[in-house]
């Protein structure tokens, strides 16, 4: 087991969630694997079509959502950062993980 180097403790969970690309397409199903105060890890059938910014929906068809930015991508998993509440910030492009 690797030592933990994250700044913020993550809560492991396996929860169904959805990604809204905010482009009129139907929300994409994903699995929320873990979450912290500032971000989360998601798993997809295919993460290559995920945009760098999107809304994470905790329940389809509700207003329970968080604006997110991709921090890293690895196969079907994606690390995301929750947007801060307030003025829009321009996050750096997502890194590719080997």
Short note summarizing the structure:
The protein is built from no helices and seven strands.
Task: Kindly describe this structure.
The structure is a single chain. This protein is an all-beta fold and 98 residues long. The chain has a single domain (11-86), classed as predicted glycosyltransferase like domains (Thrombin, subunit H). The protein is 0% helix and 47% strand. It contains no helices and seven strands. The protein has strands spanning 11-20, 28-35, 39-43, 53-57, 65-74, 77-82, 95-96. It has a six-stranded antiparallel β-barrel. A hairpin with a 7-residue loop joins strand 1 (11-20) and strand 2 (28-35).
């Amino acid at each position: 087991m690797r030592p933990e180097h994250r700044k913020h403790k993550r809560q492991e969970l396996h929860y169904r969630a959805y990604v809204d690309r905010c482009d009129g397409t139907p929300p994409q199903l994903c699995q929320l694997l873990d979450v912290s105060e500032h971000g989360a890890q998601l798993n997809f059938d295919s993460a290559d079509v995920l945009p760098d910014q999107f809304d994470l929906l905790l329940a389809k068809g509700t207003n329970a959502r968080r604006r997110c930015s991709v921090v890293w991508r690895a196969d079907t998993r994606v690390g995301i950062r929750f947007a801060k509440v307030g003025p829009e910030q321009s996050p750096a492009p997502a890194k590719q993980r080997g």
